């Protein structure tokens, strides 16, 4: 314990020097607790302020998905090229080593399988806050079905996840689900993203649409876009470019990466758009170079 004898008198208070900038740039999180902000900061690249998330949670409703038949072989090579990994607790335990140093976004809700007539009926909490803490999660993802039969139930799951996360300093990603018969318009995404944010989601995963710049502006927390169904690589990169230009703070891609002709090359090309401000054409040229001349 320091004593009060012999200690130099404090005198260098740097008067007139402004405090150093924190570099904090996560929209809507200025008033969160330090732990919450620290987890969010880990998810977004410090240079670009954006995030590339790899989603491989498809199996929890779809079973073995094309490109994800072997999680243990497909996922590890992609890990170095993304900022965040989004998956179910079971998939993470099965295919990722505990030495992993990337933030984890845990899928916490369960839904019906694709064999069920109405997958949008909503589900419940499959991974509670205690499991999220045990798994050292940086974020929890809860899916919502706005404008569908499961809306009320899924919003309750979201709210319960948000409340538990606030208590433990773990942010919540609200996921806007779209089913076969659900609307995919600017009007719908304006409503859905705002609903999730106002129910406490710290960030929102949604889809790109015409008028996306208004959707991003009206949402008080960051939006990352979902990749959705598999597109030709050039089209997927063009969608990324438009979304970032119009206010998205990242992308959360699955099938457009692990079903690509060269998943690692596609993952890196997406990063070129999201973090290095490359055009879609430059990123696609980079992808093709890696495709034909792997390093």
Tell me what the structure shows.
The chain is of the alpha/beta class. It has a domain at 34-224: TIM Barrel (Alpha-Beta Barrel), CATH 3.20.20. The protein has helices at residues 34-43, 59-62, 71-74, 89-95, 129-134, 151-168, 186-198, 212-218, 233-245, 255-258, 263-276, 280-292; strands at 51-55, 84-87, 104-107, 109-110, 124-125, 139-144, 172-176, 203-206, 223-226, 250-253. The strands form two sheets. It has an eight-stranded parallel barrel with strand order 1-2-3-6-7-8-9-10, surrounded by six helices. A two-stranded antiparallel ribbon has the order 4-5. The mean pLDDT is 89.
Summarize the structure.
This protein has 295 residues and is an alpha/beta fold.
Count of alpha and pi helical runs: 12
Radius of gyration: 21 Å
In the CATH scheme, what's the topology name of the domain at 34-224?
TIM Barrel
* Whole-number mean pLDDT: 89
